[in-house]
Amino acid sequence: MNRRAFLMMTAASAIAGTALPHMAQAYTSITFSPQEWDRIRKTDQTVILNWRASWSLTCQIKLELIAKLIGENPAYSDLTFVDINWDTFGQSIMTNRMKVTRRSTLVVMKNGREITRIENEPFERKIRALLDAALAA
Question: What is the pTM for the complete model shown?
Answer without folding.
Answer: 0.77
